[in-house]
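Inputs:
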Amino acid sequence: MDIRKRIGLNVQRIRRARGWSQEQFAFESGLHRTYISGIERGARNPTVTVVKDMADALGVTPAALLEYETASAETAE
Amino acid sequence: MDIRKRIGLNVQRIRRARGWSQEQFAFESGLHRTYISGIERGARNPTVTVVKDMADALGVTPAALLEYETASAETAE
DNA sequence: ATGTGACTAATAGTCCGTT
DNA sequence: AAACGGACTATTAGTCACA
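Outputs:
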C-alpha cells in the first residue's frame, strides 16, 4: 500500500463521515477541488503542510491521515 | 508548533535513539545529508513519500513522525 | 459532483562547498 | 558531526477546461 493511496483513502473516508462533498471539503481546507480529487485518488504526493491543512479542516491530527487502520481491509502492505 | 518543526524534532529524537549521525541516517534512508539537516531544523517541507522513507529507515510508522507526544514539553501548538 | 491531462510558478531534493 | 549557503534539476502546488 503506497502512502499516497493510504492518505487518499483516509481523507475520503473521513470526508464522507463529515457528509462533505469534495467541493465542500475543498472550501473548508482552502485547497482546490481538483487537487483534493487527485489526493483522494493517490495521484498526488502532497507535502506535510498540505496534510496539515486537510487534517485541520477535517478536525483530526495530521498523523491520523497517515495511519493504516481503515478498520476494514488492510491486507496488502 | 509548525508541523515541519514537529517532524524535525521527532526525526532527530528517534535518530539519536538509534545512535545514528545525520550522515548515517541519510545513508540508511537514501536521502541526502544536507536534506536531513534541513528537515531536522524544520526548514524543509517534505512530501509524504519522504516521510515514509525516513519512517522506514527509523523503523517506525510514518504517522509516528507527525505525532506531538514527544513525551517531554509540548506547550505551544 | 468528480476524474483527468495539461499547464506555470513555486519548491522539493541533490550536490558543491564553507563555517 | 552538523548548520548553512548557492546553484541546480525534478517534482509538487495550484489552477483550468473539459469529459
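Remarks. Residues 72-77 of chain B have pLDDT under 50 and may be disordered. Chain B has four helices and no strands.
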